[in-house]
Amino acid sequence: MYIIRDYVIFFSSEDPIVLSSSSDCYSDTSTSSAPTIDPVVINKLKKLKDEVDRLKAEESDTDSDVTLYFGDEDNFKGPPSRKRKSSDYTCTHVQQGTQTKISTLQSLRRQNKQILALKDVQIDSLVQFIKTFVILLVAGSRALGIISKIITGPLWRNIECKTHILDINDTLTALRSFLAEAKDDCSEVVTGKHLPFPEESCKIENDIVMAELFKPDETDVMTIQVLQALFSCMLNLLDRQAADHLPGNEVYQCRFDLQTDVVNELNCQIPLQELKYKRGTAFYEILN
Q1: Is 105 among the domain residues?
Q2: CA-to-CA distance for 66 and 60, rounded, in angstroms?
Q3: 53-71 pLDDT, tens digit each
Q4: Mind listing the UniProt keywords for this protein, alphabetically (predicted)?
């Protein structure tokens, strides 16, 4: 039962309902058993109570702690026509998080494609580098083998078999002439047609290693470059270390002033083992 005293209640577009005072609602006679209220008023009051309950329910939802939004509510620009609720912040945060995940995933996909493309490029570059390095390695080994066969070996054999250290002058002169020509063009050296000591050419057919070294190969171009660089360095070293044994120097001319018979007689008095040792030692002392 509702007891309302002298109030006027307005409901949207409806006419106001005026309730009389309590003295009008209750009768002083003993025959009146209970006060009476207009049924229309009762319906309006029920609607008012339902509206109050609904507003209280929305207010309790607004105060809820369950939310996924971690930003400042004052910075959130929601609809100005109604009060913002926690669901607004929750939906906004979830939407922003979804967009962030999508953009991150797309970025990772682009990076993955770039990495795969770069990986292919790196693999191709690595394969090309290995091929070039292998060719250079084979060419360098081949060049050292050729030098060993046509220069180092014959030069050492000449040192051991000559009767006098001055006899090496002709060998060094021939070697210098060869280096001066070969440092600019080694195209005939890799084929075995141009040698510092022509007498060694007969060994190419009998020597399996020499035959393989002078056989045409895909490394010919690189081998020529390596040989020309090495021959240029060897020429500078020979001019500096063995200058006295080359034409135009004093020691080179002394060979023609010495009596060959006297020198041979002196050499015959030295044991063979010591003779070879002294020849080699004398030669390397000059080089050093």
Answers
A1: no
A2: 12
A3: 877 777 665 544 444 444 4
A4: Hydrolase, Nuclease
On whether both 140 and 243 belong to a single domain, the answer is yes
Burial of 178 (0-12, 13-18, 19+ CB in 10 A): buried
Q: Which two tokens stand for residue 192?
A: 């075995």
In 148-186, which ranges are continuous DSSP H helix?
Answer: 153-161, 168-182
Tell me how many domains the chain contains: 2
Percentages of the chain per state (helix, strand, coil), in multiples of 5: 70, 0, 30
What token pair was written down for 58? 């929305």
In-domain check, residue 137: yes
The more confident residue out of 110 and 163 is 110
Q: Are 16 and 10 in contact (CB under 8 A)?
A: yes
For 16, the domain range is: 8-63
In a domain, 87, yes or no: no
3-state secondary structure of 222: helix
